[in-house]
Amino acid sequence: QKEVEQDPGPLSVPEGAIVSLNCTYSNSAFQYFMWYRQYSRKGPELLMYTYSSGNKEDGRFTAQVDKSSKYISLFIRDSQPSDSATYLCAMSVGRDDKIIFGKGTRLHILP
Amino acid sequence: DTGVSQNPRHKITKRGQNVTFRCDPISEHNRLYWYRQTLGQGPEFLTYFQNEAQLEKSRLLSDRFSAERPKGSFSTLEIQRTEQGDSAMYLCASSLTLGLGNQPQHFGDGTRLSIL
Prior knowledge:
The complex is a heterodimer.
Chain A: E1 4-5, E2 11-14, E3 19-25, E4 32-38, E5 45-51, E6 54-58, E7 61-66, E8 71-76, E9 85-92, E10 100-101, E11 105-110
Parallel strand pairs in A: 2-11
Antiparallel strand pairs in A: 1-3, 3-8, 4-5, 4-9, 6-7, 7-8, 9-10, 9-11
Chain B: E1 5-7, E2 10-13, E3 19-24, E4 31-37, E5 44-50, E6 53-57, E7 65-68, E8 75-79, E9 88-95, E10 106-107, E11 111-115
Parallel strand pairs in B: 2-11
Antiparallel strand pairs in B: 1-3, 3-8, 4-5, 4-9, 5-6, 7-8, 9-10, 9-11
């Protein structure tokens, strides 16, 4: 079993829909949780960065962490075609530690 | 542009050749990381530096790979005697470690290596 599991998709939703992306993990030592967005032939771009359990909201994006279930989610409201990209969940044990990534979910927003 | 800069963006080489990539981190970032990403996978950690000291190396980093950060600023990643399996995107990230503040890693756009 990999440390971080993420459904690779692809996931296609109509413009304006709410998108839900999820990851599960096995290492209970993870404390820092991130979501990165990656466009084709570009590097990962940090979207959300959270510590421990709870919710964090930033504009149309909401990140949720449930450490008891070892489950993290990213919600995108009012999805736009420009949101079409690969979304990578990521986590680390310490603040400055190496990051462990999921495989990434390819998301297509249909106009 | 004050982001992480990587050069070259794309490198094509024949199997058995040596290649070197360069990463310029965000100014004043003291931590620098190297990751490798293959098609359809997330990035995998290779190694990282705090200033000029290399503090951790993944078992993915075989003895054909060497990384340096001689003056604590830019870094180079060299692959000797390249193999087909080295074809991947090599990503560099940097972060600033300061007291108890949370400082996430910011990535460059990578160097895509293609082995013929």
